[in-house]
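The instructor's notes for this session suggest beginning with a concrete chain rather than abstract definitions. Hand out the sequence below and ask the class to guess, before any prediction is shown, which regions might be ordered.
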Amino acid sequence: MLTFAFPGRVIDANCYVLATGPGEECLVVDPGIGIEDTLREVLREHRLRPAAVLLTHGHLDHVYSVTPVCGGDTAAYVHTDDRYRLEDPLAHISAPLLAMVEQQFGARATWREPERVVEVTGGQTLELAGLTVDVVHAPGHTEGSVLFGVPTVPDGVADQVDVRSTVLSGDVLFAGSIGRTDLPGGSDTAMQRSLREVVLPLPDTTLVLPGHGPATTMDRERATNPYLQGL
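After discussion, reveal the predicted structure:
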C-alpha cells in the first residue's frame, strides 16, 4: 500500500494518503489546516486521484481542508454522530483556541460545508480506491470518533517491523498516549470503554497511524502505553 503522511500547519494533525500504487485512485484521511499545498504535490508526483476523504472525527484540525480537497465530486465520509460538526466546526471550539489557530495559520479561519457527505457507522466495510476499509466506532474523544482499519500495511514497513494490518486511529490512540476527553462531546467513560473493547483487542501485529505524532504498533502500546495499563 502506497502511504504518505504529513502534518498540518496547526496542532500538527496528521494527514494521510493511501493508494494501491502510483497512478491510481487514493484515499485522503483527515485533511487538516494548511495541508493543501503538500497534498497537491503528493498527488501530482505520484499521479494520484482522490476517490474519497475519510474523517476520523469532526474536529477542526482534522477537517479544515476537507471541502477544497473534495471539490464538488469527491465525498467526505464521517461517522453519523460527528456529522453535525461538519456544519460548522468553527462553532465548536472556544474563542481563545480559534484565535490561537488563526495566529499559527496566519489567516482568518473560514468554513464551507462539503457538498457530498456520506455518513458511516461502526461495523461498516467500505470498498474505496481498491482498498478495503473497516469502520470501527470508538467514541470518547468525540461522539463519532472512529478507527479506520485496512488489512494491509504501507510498502516496506513489514520488512522493518512485524505488522500485518493498519489502523488509522485518529485521536483515540497515540504513541504513548490517548486523545483528550475534556472537549465538548468528549467522555472519559466512553473513552475507557473504547480503549478496553475496541483498542485492546487489536492484534499486536497492527500498525497504528495516529492523528498526531509518530506511528506505533499495538505490540508496543500494549506493553508501554500507561493509558492501556490495567484495562
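Then share the key points. The two ends are 32 Å apart (CA to CA). The mean pLDDT is 93.
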